[in-house]
Amino acid sequence: MKQTTNAIVMIRPVAFRMNEQTAVNNYYQKVLDGLLPSTVNAKAQQEFDTFVEKLRAVGVDVTVVDDNLQTDTPDSIFPNNWVSFHENGDVALYPMFAENRRQERREDILDTLEEKGFEIANIMDYTSAEEDGIFLEGTGSLLLDRANGKAYCALSPRADEELFIEFCEDFDYAPVIFEAFQTVDGERKLIYHTNVMMCLGETFAVICADSIDDKKERKMVLDNLKQDQKEVILITEAQVNNFAGNMLEVRGNDDKRYIVMSASAHQSLTPKQIAQLENHAEILSSSLDTIEACGGGSARCMMAEVFLPRS
């Protein structure tokens, strides 16, 4: 199984704004005072378009789908939370915490991929769990080590343990389960998505180990990464706040690997951390300031990786 892919799906926003329904447990979101919604969306579109250009310039196969105005989906720019694509042709659809995010799941996006020659064999649909108030938000909640058959999950209101274990059984992953915290107004609160504090590359892992308060859990997670010969690159909670955990390794022209992150994530890294990452792949960063502030997500959240077979 490959850990990285050349193909990704990205959703261009049409009505991007801070989503009041996700702000209840995404403490990275901020209100941008004094900006009209149309200005926020225009800035987000500009950041999105520049980001896509940079990815395509190095040979990443980006399928861009426009969001539509019929649905009120301010977070549609983060498709990795509702869908994941797998090498055997499986597509998984996930239950979403915020009601207005459930409209992001669109069959026409799957049709677009099939038109491009990707083959979908089977759809695994977990979305009925929403009726029971149970959520698992795609590769936001799940960090898949596809090559080593492990799935990492920081439990939270958006990542249910039993449903995560069910996913692992269905897709043949060994579950690695823990809790990760951030400090909010002096209190330790659960981090809403695993991919905010951790990134898995082919030969490295970026992780904020300090966010795993339980020492046994922290050791267990780090031991799993080391067993699989990944170089562990530690980041701080302050760097997590700059989305340094929200990176993704992708492939460009000639299978060259790139570690994709936002400009704020890149700027937050120390020279030593940058050198460590550059031992594995070239860094590609782009300014996503508006998207990060209003959406509380960053570069990794914007990219749904496509591992489907191609005809």
Automatic annotation (TrEMBL):
- The highest taxon in the source lineage is Bacteria
Q: Give a Pfam family name.
A: DDAH_eukar
The record's InterPro entries line, in alphabetical order, gives:
Amdntrnsf_FN0238 (IPR014541)
PANTHER family referenced in this protein's UniProt entry, alphabetically: AMIDINOTRANSFERASE
**How is this protein named in the record?**
Arginine deiminase-related protein
Q: Which organism does this record belong to? A: Flavobacterium ginsenosidimutans
